[in-house]
Amino acid sequence: MDFLASTTHFHILTWVAGIIIFIVTAGLEKGTKGKKIGHMIARLFYVLILLSGFMLFMKYSSIDAALYGVKFLLGLLTIGMMEMVLVRSAKEKSVKVFWILFFVFLLATLFLGFGIGIGVSFLA
Asked: Which residues of 69-100 are buried (b: 16+ CB within 10 A; e: fewer)?
């Protein structure tokens, strides 16, 4: 399992793919088989994102535990909003607030993630 925490490449790959799959799935027609399959694939990527993120958290949290903890929590909230958008849209309920929260949490997570200083550092 060292490949999950040796670099950030796997983690970045999983969240980029997960976000793309989420957006494509959210754009599909309600009640279609493709939307259900997309939702299951998105859930698989949620697990991969959480697993790789947890491994990175365990490896690097000794540097600044509070900052990494906040980033981990923001990542969980981002995934939670992604799931809420897909589930509530399948039930044909309003998802406007969850889309807004998704983008807020995503931007905050990206800001902290790229500002931490491991792997790719766009904000350094």
From this structure: eebbebbbbbbebbbbbbeebeeeeebeebbe
